[in-house]
Amino acid sequence: MSVFNGDLMIIKVGSTQVAELTNCELTASTNMFEVTSKESGGKKEILAGNSEWSATADINVDFQSSNWDAADMWAAWDAKTALSITVTNGVTGDKQFAGTAYVDNVTYTGPQGDKASGTVSFAGTGALTISTIV
User: Fold this and answer.
1) Among the residues of 22-122, which ranges form H helices?
2) Would you state the pLDDT for residue 3?
3) Coil/strand/helix, residue 77
4) Does residue 35 surpass a pLDDT of 80?
């Protein structure tokens, strides 16, 4: 068994890694809708609706990185730019996920006596594909 190493998991925008990444998450879900009727025998019935996906990156705020940094996040959100993103660990033979997404939320936090941190959320549009890293 080959466990996906969380330390290696990153998000790329185009071919550039999200800068100062401390945590990342990929979520895929399907909306369910209820079709229970009086003929369901008292049991809830559902059907699968539309599927959706999203990704989230937690970062140390850096506005001057050569990678995809906090300034790039803000610009993509402000311009409502469709981005090509990949969630990967870069290990040949492992799986990676790719799709097109928009930045739907950017948060920067600056606590007293600590580093500034942030979160950027990507809302997927269309299919999320899985492929083998070559």
Assistant:
1) 70-79
2) 76
3) helix
4) yes
What distance in Å separates the CA atoms of residue 12 and residue 18, rounded to the nearest whole number?
6
- In angstroms, rounded to a whole number, what is the distance separating the alpha carbons of residues 27 and 72? 22
Q: How far apart are CA 87 and CA 17, in angstroms?
A: 10
Task: In whole angstroms, give the CA distance from residue 59 to residue 19.
Answer: 7
Residue 73 and residue 102 in contact, taking contact as beta carbons nearer than 8 Å: no
Q: 6-31+48-132: which CATH number, 2.30.110.20, 1.10.357.10, 3.30.470.30, 1.10.3720.10?
A: 2.30.110.20
- CA 134, CA 118: separation in Å to the nearest integer? 31
What value does the mean pLDDT of the chain take? Answer: 95
